[in-house]
């Protein structure tokens, strides 16, 4: 399996560090977030990784080259001219996954102990259940979040809600709102080739918007790893917390 690490974001929540550096190079106990996630993927036998870059792209490229990819075969997807968000970034890198049935995509600014072998096994079962209509399996937890993905009782995506503003987006409205299953997205997903085949969005767009569009006709399941560790390292205080957990 190949993987993509999304590292092109501006990292505005991590200022002032990101005024001069990309968030992917923020340090936790002597290792950058990027290095930690490359090493995390290597633990599961994922050795071929593409990383998209935009904000201080040269610093990420230099770090990868100086460290020989930390043991991985790394390809750079250059978005220096325009950041394409998560969905557009994946679409730009589509050729890298040609011939692959599925691949892993994760944000650079998360740290986790999610067991990818278990998630891959669950994804394989979802693919059998969906009979060819599975486009993605999304890692989620039950943590508090400003935004939730909404799933139905069968475990497939049907909506999204901003818990701060109350904004909702429904792709498959539920007959009974009490059956909704809200989950917080972990920024990790297994994406199938059918995702790119079915995708109609172009240019700059988020993966969440793409999933909500495709969920009208295809299956998108969730994989809950609430029993483990998931840390969004997007703020300075999160870096401090990460240093107490990830040695």
Characterize the structure shown.
The model has no long low-confidence stretch (mean pLDDT 95). The longest helix is centred in the middle third of the chain and has 15 residues, at 116-130. This protein has 247 residues and is of the alpha/beta class. 28% of the residues lie in helices and 30% in strands. Helix 3 packs across helix 6. It has 2 domains: 1-109, Spore Coat Polysaccharide Biosynthesis Protein SpsA, Chain A (Alpha-Beta Complex), CATH 3.90.550.10; 114-228, no CATH class. The strands form 3 sheets. Strands 1, 4, 5, 6, 8, 9, 10, 11, 12 and 13 form a 10-stranded mixed β-sheet that branches. It contains 7 helices and 14 strands.
The portion of residues assigned to helices is 25-40%
Classify the secondary structure makeup into a structural class. Answer: alpha/beta
Poorly predicted regions are none
- Main beta sheet, described? 10 strands, mixed
Number of strands: 14
**Whole-number average pLDDT?**
95
Please tell me the total number of domains. Answer: 2
Radius of gyration: 17 Å
- SS summary, helix count: 7
Estimate the strand proportion. 25-35%
* Ends distance: 27 Å
Anisotropy-based shape: globular
Oligomer: single chain
Helix and strand run: EEEHEHEHEEHEEEEEHHEEH
